[in-house]
Amino acid sequence: MNYSIRLFKIMGIPIELHITFILFLVVIIGLSIMNNSIFWAVLFILLFVSVVLHELGHSYVAKKYGVKIEKILLLPIGGVAMMDKIPKEGELRIGIAGPLVSFIIGIVLLIVSQFFDININGYPLLYTLSLLNLMLGGFNLIPAFPMDGGRILRAILSKKYGYLKSTKIAANIGKSLALIMLLFGLLSMNIILILVSLFVYFGAEQESRVVEVETIFKNIKAKDIMTPNPVYVTPDMSIEEFLDFMLKHKYFGYPVVENGKLVGCIGIGNIHKKEGTVRDYMEKPVVVSEDTDIKEILRKMANTDRVFVVEGGKLKGIISKTDILRAMSILELKEELKD
Known about the structure:
This protein has helices at 19-34, 39-64, 91-113, 125-140, 148-161, 163-188, 191-216, 222-225, 239-249, 278-281, 294-300, 321-338, and strands at 4-10, 13-18, 69-75, 78-83, 119-120, 123-124, 227-228, 253-258, 261-267, 287-288, 306-311, 314-320. By secondary structure, the protein is of the alpha+beta class. It starts with a strand and ends with a helix.
């Protein structure tokens, strides 16, 4: 289900509103009407125009490095430019671009507001918007993930400490900052601050884990981590025979092979009755090749416990989540011992 609405395109990039943004906008407009003041509704809309320009700053520079931009998504807590993986050599410039746009908007509006401003319900619109843009640029320069400053810090540190270690440093700063924000949010009962702290914490954690997995599993293919020559069952095996087979081999899931070809898979969760055969309960297997990379394997394993490695029509191996965790532990240790 799609939870966003497309508005228009700028530089070929779709601009979309998340449904929560629309609900939040309705609340802001409702409160403005109740208070007989449209200032906050107008300010809110103009602020998110500024957020779009901020994200377009990132996107413009990213496109210069050949990065594909899927869309810019507007959320109540800000905007997100959804793009392909940023090349390491362009991360510094791409990270700076957004805050730079915000600072330029803020400074220009601040200068203009000294000579001309729009007063709504006694509030200076341009002056207030200029300060919010300066705050937006400054907040994003905080050297912690998932803010732009975290990416800028990583780009600078990676020249000395390497990409993975620099990511962990920036992520740890981000999580520490988030815990401080959460503490202040709880003490002051500030819901917005609590939500922002959670966003920062989990954003930093996710960035760290993604980079860690990509670094550790770099150049690792399915054939490197699979369990080769797995035991298998046949489709005509009775359920009673299958349960005895499971008890003997101690795995929860098995490939189903017929005439030398993989035709299905079956696990303990597929069995509901003792009657019938394996053919009656088996599922369609999720298949990869020997040269499938870890990123694609993890994507395919999002909704299954195991994938089957097939080459030339023949079953070569099986990769379970246990295999992934085992390989990760070993590769993490190898990475640590390098240091």
